[in-house]
Input
Amino acid sequence: MRRTCAALGSAAFFAAAPGVVAGLVPWWLTGYRASAHTWPAQAAGGALVLAGTAVLLHAFARFVREGLGTPAPIAPTRHLVVGGAYRYVRNPMYLAVVAVILGQALFLLRPVLFVYGAAVWLTVAAFVRGYEEPTLRETYGEDYEAYCRAVPAWLPGVRSPSMRRRPRGRRP
Output
């Protein structure tokens, strides 16, 4: 897949997946109307939304530049993506989406978004466990196994010395 196609596919998937999950659904649930206004909650929520959005955009860009593909299962990467935020945590996109939702919950002080954020978290964790990890193991083999040993799935950590060299996972 050429970078141009990967970028276009990633942009479309960005709108269709995180755009809906972290943008459209919270709007449907709240109309983006706050139940109260407190500056500490709004400041914390705004920071989470901004940080989550930045990580999400960075992760999508890594899929295009490093992976030569998209995050969409129908147009996967040719190379295992292990750089950038992926050096510290294996699932930065999912963490970023949940951070955006929880940031909105804090900013708007809407309990429904906390519940929705928890539901999204459980859903993506089940997806990762049931589909994504087995698929990546099958596709990238030992490169993915080494990556799993070196980088935590959900809690960002410092890169392990065993990940100093980038695995060269290629699609068979």
